[in-house]
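TASK: fixed-backbone design
INPUT:
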């Protein structure tokens, strides 16, 4: 890891040196050097004095260019900072950390309620703009051959940011959030919805709830953008016990 970081620093340093050296070489070798022309125009024609002034101006210019490049790179890096995303599953207001277990009553399972909560903390403005543009979605996947998941309060979600498809719960992360608001950055945004989960058939089986990213448009761009984004999420195992 350290070698990778050092390589990036060396590459960045070489890039800055190349840019600065190119600019300086252009100024010095230019036949119409504006520094010498200015000194000549005010009567300061001494060759030694002119070269001394040129050296001082070049030193100042190098420092200013370095500061400018540092400022630009800092702004770019800050605006490309990855957002923090955390997904929590809770049951009766307690976080689910152990497997969800189902034991049949008679020949059927009883449905269990859980709440899906998403905490989103925006960071880089460029990253957020891209995520909003592509319509970023987080998908909580489940096996539809084993589990049936539906909304607790009916067929439709109370929160339009959530949608149940054939094999996943889609979370439309930024669809209902105003990213241009003055208070958008520097705070956590929370999305939540209640669900019911129930195994389809009574038999011994195990599965889990995992996650992945998708987007409403520009699939290729979305893969590149979401590749480095990590979600703080604990994969939840689900254990179904058959009839004894």
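OUTPUT:
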């Amino acid at each position: 890891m350290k070698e990778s970081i050092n390589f990036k620093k060396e590459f960045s340093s070489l890039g800055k040196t190349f840019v600065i050296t190119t600019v300086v070489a252009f100024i010095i070798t230019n036949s119409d050097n504006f520094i010498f022309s200015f000194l000549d125009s005010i009567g300061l024609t001494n060759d030694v004095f002119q070269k001394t002034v040129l050296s001082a101006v070049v030193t100042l210019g190098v420092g200013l260019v370095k500061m400018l490049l540092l400022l630009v790179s800092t702004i770019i890096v800050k605006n490309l900072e990855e957002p923090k995303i955390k997904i929590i599953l809770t049951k009766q207001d307690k976080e689910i950390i152990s497997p969800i277990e189902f034991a049949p009553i008679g020949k059927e399972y009883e449905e269990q309620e859980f709440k899906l909560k998403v905490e989103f903390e925006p960071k880089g403005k460029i990253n957020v703009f891209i995520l909003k543009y592509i319509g970023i979605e987080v998908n909580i996947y489940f096996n539809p051959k084993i589990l049936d998941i539906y909304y607790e309060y009916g067929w439709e979600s109370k929160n339009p940011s959530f949608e149940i498809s054939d094999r996943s719960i889609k979370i439309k992360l930024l669809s209902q959030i105003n990213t241009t608001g003055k208070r958008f950055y520097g705070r956590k945004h929370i999305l939540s919805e209640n669900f019911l989960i129930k195994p389809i058939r009574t038999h011994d089986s195990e599965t889990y709830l995992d996650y992945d990213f998708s987007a409403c448009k520009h699939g290729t761009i979305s893969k590149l953008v979401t590749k480095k984004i990590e979600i703080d999420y604990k994969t939840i195992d689900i254990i179904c016990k058959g009839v004894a």
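COMMENT: The chain is about 35% helix and 30% strand.
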